[in-house]
Design brief:
By secondary structure, the protein is an alpha+beta fold. It has a single domain, classed as 3-Layer(aba) Sandwich (Beta-lactamase). Helix content is about 35%, strand content about 20%. The chain is built from 14 helices and 15 strands. Strands 2, 3, 4, 5, 10, 11, 12, 13, 14 and 15 form a 10-stranded antiparallel β-sheet that branches. The protein has a 3-stranded antiparallel β-sheet with strand order 1-8-7, with no helix packed on it. The radius of gyration is 20 Å and the shape is globular. The N terminus is likely disordered.
């Protein structure tokens, strides 16, 4: 393993934010090294492109020119939706990015999982302050994580060790087995070998372990699989035809390939086909339209009652985010120009942010198919600049 690989592996063990941690799973496993140019595709929307559209397209092209293989922007303001693309979805074939291409949405999955759990709270089938070990007899070792509640799981304040910080989780991928299957129970067992980081509720610490347990709570309360409840409560009612929680390494349908820059000299590696072991914490595949539809439905009150939305939007301080934010129950809150709700997602080879205004009239979704850990600083700056420019241009 070269110094670059070793450095990334070390970074995995020290950065607790899953948006950064999940980006290094495959490293030297992929043999296809590619490079190419990134032509832009134009904008499409509900009305002819105007001056602001041209500015946004130029900004999207700058993200690609700075190093991202491809990008998709969905921008919705006061009923008008514009979709723009730039660059490539597949560097091997030269296939251009399309607005409907699917991709891995990573931790945006947490918002879906939280919505399912809160619907069960709304139905009186469990309480936010119910003890998790009481809801999941036999799943959590006796005495482990005493005092952890459902609220702690969703708020990332449980203190439970995040299984992804154990180097054993990554070993199969470092060894080249991208299709290695970790079951949720195996990953929980790894987490439970480590002492909790702090007493429940003491502070914030991103934890996929907590969202696995939240999904197990759903299964225990309903008697159905988590995937069944996700489809019945969220995906099917909202008509999210391009959203799923896969249990195979591939991405169904037309999709954007994901890339990471590795090696000496640096080159793009295709890391698309990794087993989605992040499950209820980050296994989602979706499109920009489906992401926008879900967050709009969530924040305009179609999924949860006002009382439960108030609980979801009760935030705590986040201390490990690139962009200053606060964390609610499965959602994030930013203040780029007023308030923006939503969630970010960082999966190997992909980065997505969805921002939506409190009145749901304004929404921006921005996805690139480059791993943020290997993204050039200029491209990262261009990404954040475009996210702010699109959302705040109203």
């Amino acid at each position: 393993m070269n110094r670059l690989d070793a450095g990334r592996r070390s970074a995995v063990r020290t950065r607790r934010n899953a948006r950064h941690r999940l980006t290094v799973l495959l490293l030297v496993a992929v043999s296809l090294v590619l490079a190419g140019a990134f032509p832009a595709e134009g904008a499409s929307g509900s009305s002819p492109p105007g001056r602001n559209d041209r500015q946004l397209q130029a900004a999207l092209d700058r993200v690609v020119a700075a190093g991202a293989p491809g990008a998709i922007l969905l921008d919705r303001h006061d009923g008008r939706t514009t979709r723009m693309t730039s660059g490539l979805a597949d560097m091997a074939t030269g296939r251009r990015m399309r607005a409907g291409d699917r991709f891995r949405a990573a931790s945006q999955m947490k918002s879906f999982t939280a919505a399912v759990v809160l619907q069960l709270v709304q139905e009186g089938r469990l309480g936010l302050d119910d003890a998790v070990d009481g809801l999941l007899p036999g799943v959590i070792p006796h005495g482990y994580g005493a005092g952890v509640t459902v609220r702690h799981l969703l708020a990332n304040s449980s203190g439970l060790f995040d299984f992804g910080d154990d180097p054993r989780v990554l070993e199969p991928y470092f060894a080249g087995d991208l299709g290695h299957v970790w079951t949720p129970r195996q990953l929980l067992d790894i987490a439970f070998e480590h002492a909790p980081l702090f007493p429940p509720g003491a502070r914030y610490s991103y934890s996929d372990t907590g969202y696995f347990l939240a999904a197990y709570v759903v299964e225990a309360v309903t008697g159905n699989s988590f995937d069944h409840e996700l489809r019945r409560r969220i995906i099917n009612p909202l008509g999210l035809r391009d959203t799923s929680l896969p249990t195979v390494a591939g991405i169904a349908g037309r999709h954007a390939h994901g890339y990471i820059v590795m090696g000496e000299p640096p080159a793009d590696l295709d890391i698309t086909y990794l087993y989605p072991f992040a499950w209820a914490a980050g296994g989602l595949t979706t499109t920009v339209d489906d992401s926008a539809t879900f967050f709009r439905a969530l924040f305009d009150g179609r999924l949860l009652s006002p009382a439960l939305m108030a609980e979801m939007k009760t935030t705590i301080e986040v201390d490990d985010s690139d962009l200053p934010s606060r964390s609610g129950l499965g959602v994030q809150r930013w203040t780029p120009c007023g308030v923006a709700w939503g969630h970010s997602g960082n999966s190997p080879g992909y980065l997505i942010y969805t921002w939506i205004s409190p009145d749901t009239r304004h929404e921006t979704v921005l996805m690139i198919n480059e791993d943020p850990q290997s993204l050039e600083a200029a491209a990262a700056t261009a990404y954040i600049d475009l996210l702010n420019r699109a959302y705040c241009s109203r």
